[in-house]
């Protein structure tokens, strides 16, 4: 062992923690090495000093004082929390109120948490909503019919206002036909028709319209001939729709009902407003695969304008909803 | 690596008291822990701070922190090691905050007389007054030398040479390796011996 090794062992040697051969080796080295012996004496004196230091004891009332400290600090931490949250009231309360308001607005704007309220309202007044929607649609179209001077931009604005139904309403299977999944059509004896796909409406102007558009395709629409003679629906049954002669509408509403029933349709709503110079409405749904057939057969009783307007939706299983206004 | 160490009987007693305090909210269990370790903690704080009042504040702060954090005690080390670690860190924080160093403080030997009296120390006083004065003066000089050390070296000297902790305990308290403890301790001792050369000479 060299001097460095011995110096490293000296603390344990002085503390008598080294035994056996190592201890003897240190003993021998210290006897022969004056420098290490000096180091040993110095370190021993140092240990003698540090170990002689008195161990300080805690004050007699330390525990009682500690209890007071704990109590004070616990109260202080609560007070500090209150200070952080509310004080000074003049500054923090308005700021916090503004923050809460801002967060509420953000939540309402992005997450629309009150949609369920709209749903409730909607479901309760389904019929009223239906009527309101129809009147809006009519108003939109009539405005184009009555006043051609209305600028197209304005017409477009009105159209947009009709289109803007809340997204949630569409998702909740509202009584109004959703734009994408169903094709709704009103058929009027007055000679105009429109689909529920409002983008086509701007090209339609009441009795003079002759073109419907669905997506990028367009379909010719003709006004019904007022000279057509009526023919019973039953007689027309089984005939090819394209070959069926155009006959005037007989005014027999039961024939329309039979026709709907024969094609697996269901009448959603029937409304007689003829008393107030209005129309007789039949709103019904039927499987989309029967839609072309329905259009053809309606044509035979003078209600449908042209079979080319038969625009079934892509999926056959979906229901098509038709609205027929019959002016008696 | 599992740092769990061998449990001693003292550890078991301490663990039982901790569980009683944490699980049952038994304040008397906490008080028992305080009474058991208050002198060790106070002495450590006194050597670290070099001032009686500061030591009392630090010791109380240490036990208050323990009171707040005992719920998170993981029973992987002894309570004493744990409370020592809190005490050393509390002292270091207070020293940093107040920028107080004993080396800049004039040592008041009469003040130390007061400290001992106020601490309720009833130790034998058979020594002659001049001898007593000499001993207190010597203690003050040693404390001054210790306080002049950097904080990390100071805590090493106090824990090993004045409190006789093992290298393993010190390594755990100061969160350093045993080898580092030994090498830094050697450096700290060297500095102290140089500062206390006169006294060591007298001892010789």
- By secondary-structure content and strand pairing, the structural class of chain B works out as mainly alpha
Number of separate structural domains of chain A: 2
For the largest beta sheet of chain A, what order do the strands appear in spatially?
2-1-7-6-5
The H-and-E topology of chain B, N to C, reads as: HHHHHHHHHH
Broad CATH class of the domain at 1-101 in chain B? Mainly Alpha
- Cα Rg of chain B: 18 Å
* Percentage beta strand of chain A: 5-15%
Sheet with most strands of chain A: 5 strands, mixed
- The DSSP helix count of chain B reads 10
Describe the structure.
- The complex is a heterodimer of chains A (328) and B (204).
- By secondary structure, chain A is α+β, with helices and mostly antiparallel strands.
- Chain A has 2 domains: 3-52, no CATH class; 123-326, no CATH class.
- Chain A is 50% helix and 12% strand.
- Chain A has 12 helices and 7 strands.
- Chain A has helices at 3-14, 20-32, 34-52, 62-86, 89-111, 115-124, 126-146, 152-163, 167-171, 233-236, 253-262, 291-300, and strands at 184-188, 193-195, 211-214, 217-220, 266-272, 280-287, 319-326.
- Chain A has a 5-stranded mixed beta sheet, covered by helices on one side. A two-stranded antiparallel sheet of chain A has the order 3-4.
- In chain A, α1 (3-14) crosses α2, α1 runs parallel beside α3 (34-52) and α7 runs antiparallel to α8 (152-163).
- Chain B has 204 residues and is mainly α.
- Chain B has a domain at 1-101: Rna Polymerase Sigma Factor, Chain: A, CATH 1.10.1740.
- Helix content of chain B is 74%, strand content 0%.
- Chain B has helices at residues 9-24, 27-49, 52-69, 79-98, 109-118, 129-147, 151-162, 167-174, 178-195, 197-203.
- The A-B interface holds A 8, 11, 41-43, 45-51, 53-60, 62-63, 65-66, 69-70, 73 and B 31, 34-35, 38-39, 41-43, 46-47, 55-56, 59-61, 63-64, 67, 118-121, 123, 138-139, 142-143, 157, 161-162, 164, 186, 189, 192-193, 196, 199-200, 203-204.
């Amino acid at each position: 062992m060299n001097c460095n090794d011995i110096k490293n062992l000296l603390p344990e040697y002085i503390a008598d923690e080294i035994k056996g051969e190592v201890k003897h080796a240190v003993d021998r080295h210290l006897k022969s090495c004056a420098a290490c012996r000096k180091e040993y004496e110095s370190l021993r004196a140092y240990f003698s000093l540090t170990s002689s230091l008195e161990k300080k004891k805690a004050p007699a009332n330390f525990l009682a004082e500690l209890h007071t400290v704990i109590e004070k600090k616990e109260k202080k931490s609560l007070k500090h929390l209150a200070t952080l949250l509310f004080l000074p009231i003049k500054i923090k309360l308005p700021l916090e109120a503004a923050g809460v308001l801002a967060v509420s607005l953000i939540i309402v704007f992005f997450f629309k948490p009150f949609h369920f309220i709209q749903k409730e309202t909607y479901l309760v007044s389904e019929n009223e909503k239906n009527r309101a929607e129809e009147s809006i649609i009519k108003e939109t179209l009539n405005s184009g019919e009555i006043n051609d001077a209305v600028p197209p931009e304005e017409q477009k604005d009105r159209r947009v206002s009709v289109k803007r139904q809340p997204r949630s309403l569409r998702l909740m299977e509202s009584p109004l036909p959703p734009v994408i999944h169903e094709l709704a059509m009103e058929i009027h004896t007055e000679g105009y028709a429109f689909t529920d796909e409002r983008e086509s409406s701007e090209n339609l102007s009441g009795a003079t319209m002759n073109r419907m558009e669905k997506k990028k395709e367009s379909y010719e629409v003709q006004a019904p001939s007022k000279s057509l003679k009526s023919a019973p629906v039953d007689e027309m049954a089984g005939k090819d729709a394209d070959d069926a002669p155009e006959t005037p509408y007989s005014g027999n509403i039961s024939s329309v009902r039979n026709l709907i029933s024969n094609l697996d349709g269901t009448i959603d709503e029937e409304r007689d407003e003829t008393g107030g110079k209005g129309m007789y409405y039949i709103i019904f749904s039927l499987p989309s695969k029967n839609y072309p057939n329905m259009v053809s057969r309606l044509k035979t009783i003078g209600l449908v304008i042209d079979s080319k307007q038969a625009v079934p939706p892509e999926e056959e299983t979906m229901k098509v909803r038709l609205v027929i206004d019959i002016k008696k | 690596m599992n740092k769990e160490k061998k449990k001693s009987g003292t550890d078991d007693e301490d663990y039982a008291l901790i569980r009683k305090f944490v699980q049952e909210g038994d304040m008397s269990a906490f008080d028992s822990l305080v009474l058991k370790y208050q002198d060790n903690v106070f002495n450590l704080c006194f050597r670290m701070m070099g001032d009686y009042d500061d030591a009392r504040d630090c010791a109380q702060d240490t036990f208050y922190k323990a009171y707040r954090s005992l719920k998170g005690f993981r029973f992987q080390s002894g309570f004493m090691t744990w409370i020592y670690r809190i005490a050393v860190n509390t002292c270091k924080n207070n020293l940093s905050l107040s920028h107080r160093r004993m080396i800049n403080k004039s040592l008041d030997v009469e003040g130390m007389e007061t400290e001992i009296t106020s601490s309720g120390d009833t130790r034998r006083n058979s020594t002659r007054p001049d001898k007593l004065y000499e001993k207190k003066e010597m203690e003050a000089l040693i404390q001054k030398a210790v306080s002049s050390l950097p904080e990390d070296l100071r805590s090493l000297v106090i824990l090993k040479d004045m409190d006789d902790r093992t290298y393993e305990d010190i390594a755990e308290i100061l969160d350093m390796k045993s080898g580092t403890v030994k090498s830094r301790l050697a450096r700290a001792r060297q500095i102290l011996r140089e500062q206390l050369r006169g006294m060591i000479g007298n001892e010789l």
